Amino acid sequence: MILFVDALTVIDFSYFCNKRGPVGESWIADLTLHGDLNNESMVLDFALVKKQIKRIIDDTIDHKLAIPKRLNGTCSIENEQVKIDAQFGEEHHIAMYAPEQAVCLIDAETVNEQSVIEFLKQQIMPKMPENVKDIDIELRPEQTSSFYYHYSHGLKKHDGNCQRIVHGHRSLIGISLDNIVMPRLQKEWSRKWEDIYLGSEEDLINNSELKHIKALDSDYAFSYTSTQGYFELAISKARCDLLPCDTTVECIADYLATEIKKTHPDNAVKVKAFEGVGKGAIAYA
């Protein structure tokens, strides 16, 4: 017997790519379970699928930075703290210090849909009842013909997992002037923020103030303490954009509207910024 649950959850996370650096991603997870009927004449109660399996996915990879085995640098974990120092692209750098729960180690050469699927199956199957013989997982981005960008960030004021300093989203962006959709502006910002780290000026520190990692002269340095612990990040300035506000989606939408208004002072600006799939914020200027 086969049981399926489409769009069980959305995985919002970042993964490290040796070419692109930290890539914010949002994948919709579809699940199929193969097995025998239990004494309730079910493969597995839908309530357990939605709670138990979703919780496993959330706990293991959601709102984390996924690190592949073939990292162009070093990754070490000691005393429940993780330290990363790596190069990406031709000349870019990233270093991070964070609680261990902020990362997910993927035993694969690269992080992609297939390697994450294999990783998740390894986490889920041992926790399934005996009648569940196998599971299939499909990870897919939101289908769209519109413009989007990949961004990573951290929210120190958040009580949940958004405080992790490098996690992210694949996000659509909608921009209108006087209620007319502007694809040109949407394309412009999606290119500007392709594979971007959005940092808050409030969290910016001098490179010399970093306690656990080292920054290059070409890096920005960030640090903050939140409920999960102490976080540090150094990342190439060329792959970072500083915002004079927090990087919640509400603030991102407002920032974009304000910036676009500067170049279009005579127009009514509307920005619809997404945070992953099916959620976000709208701002006007």
Automatic annotation (TrEMBL):
Enzyme superclass (EC): lyase
Name of the protein in question: 6-carboxy-5,6,7,8-tetrahydropterin synthase
Catalyzed chemical reaction(s): 7,8-dihydroneopterin 3'-triphosphate + H2O = 6-carboxy-5,6,7,8-tetrahydropterin + triphosphate + acetaldehyde + 2 H(+)
InterPro entries per the UniProt record, alphabetical: 6-PTP_synth/QueD (IPR007115), 6-PTP_synth/QueD_sf (IPR038418)
EC number(s) given by UniProt: 4.1.2.50
Organism per entry: Pseudoalteromonas phenolica
Family assignment from sequence similarity: Belongs to the PTPS family. QueD subfamily.
GO molecular function, one term: 6-carboxytetrahydropterin synthase activity
Pathway stated in the Swiss-Prot or TrEMBL entry: Purine metabolism; 7-cyano-7-deazaguanine biosynthesis
Domain of life: Bacteria
